[in-house]
Amino acid sequence: MNQTGFTEGNKIRLLCSGSAFFPALELAIDAATTEIYLETYIFKNDAIGHMIAAALIRAAKRGVSVHLLIDGYGSYHLPEIFIQRLLNANIKLLIYRREDFFFRFRRYRLRRMHRKLAVIDARIAFVGGINIISDYDHPHIRLPRLDYAVSIEGPVLEKIHHAAQHLWMLVAWAHFRKRWINHRKPPASIKHKDNQLANFLIRDNLQHRHDIEHAYLNAIDQAKTEIIIANAYFLPGRHFCAALNQAARRGVSVILLLQGKIEYRLQHYATRALYGNLLDAGIRIHEYNRNYLHAKVAVIDRHWSTVGSSNIDPFSLMLAREANLIIMDKVFAHQLRTNLMQAIAKESTPVVRFHWQSQSWLYHALYRFCYFVIYYAQSILGYGYKDMQHQAAP
């Protein structure tokens, strides 16, 4: 595997779902002495939102410089009184592209801040797919979402800290909040904490438009034995599908863990339009149905892993600001792989090729229709997602 851009000496811990992530984040916030950067797509007015807000307020009262960046679309329903409470506590809060009219469609609305990222004192960071929202958000399901994050200590923190500080600076300038910009730099040499190799990647609309996608494609192209991808919203383009198909045809075991429950109907059915093409190549597909799948992770050849915010769909790969950590470590990969394989074996349903093909033509027509609705929406909006063409099953 290509190791360009990787740094050694990191200590990375896998956090499975909110039950592991939120206590770790709260503990780190409570230990903060200097600064906190927290970015999240959704900040919900629920028990978890109140817990993290209370921790941020405690930190601000100790004199910690707290920077909270939330997305204007994902956190649209966060009450103004909640936001004002944070501002009154001397927390610096910015909203990325605030939505004034939720039901008015505007082209730039799709360019969101989808990152889930925290950096505390340039000492510890968290990267993953978990928003500040309860795992038990759906009233009829009393089981947690399947999602992942990582805690990070070590030299790769320098990249993560820089990314958080840079995005905060851009949004602060846009909101005329120059005085909220903190120019503190991380320690010149962040100490080695362990022996794990890691790289931090972002997706933006300038210099890093395809970094995350290319990291996936490079790892898939070099795979020799096994690819496991768990992704909540899976709608890759032509090149990504071709890479998976080619891997399967050269004998690599390719396993996809995808959303089984319908959360967004159009996206759900559009993804199913790809099943025929993937199954024909020998790719195994499992649909997670214990609860909602929100994971954005992968393990390749039992030593390359990624955990982050980026789905494999047009929204994440072409439009949103995303952040993923790439880890080259057999121990970490084994832990993540074991967790995924347990979810596949016990909490998912395999998509059987024969049963799939024998479905009514009406279902297949519906899947193709939803796929092309998304494809043409991308074209009309001018995002030029040409490589989505010809992937739907015939």
Count every helix, treating DSSP H or I runs of 4 or more residues as helices: 12
Taking the sheet with the most strands, its summary is:
15 strands, mixed
State the end-to-end CA separation. 35 Å
Query: What are the secondary-structure elements, in order, as H or E?
Result: EHEHEHEEEEHEHEHEHHEEEHEHEHH
Outline: globular
Q: How many strand elements? A: 15
Question: How many separate domains make up the residues?
Answer: 2
Helix proportion range = 25-40%
Sequence stretches where pLDDT stays below 50 over 5 or more residues: none
Radius of gyration: 21 Å
Strand order of the largest sheet: 4-3-2-5-6-7-1-8-14-13-12-9-10-11-15
CATH superfamily of the largest domain: Endonuclease Chain A
**Structure classification:** alpha+beta
Strand content: 15-25%
Which second-level CATH architecture of the largest domain applies?
Answer: 2-Layer Sandwich
The name of the CATH topology of the largest domain is Endonuclease, Chain A
Give the C-level CATH assignment of the largest domain.
Alpha Beta
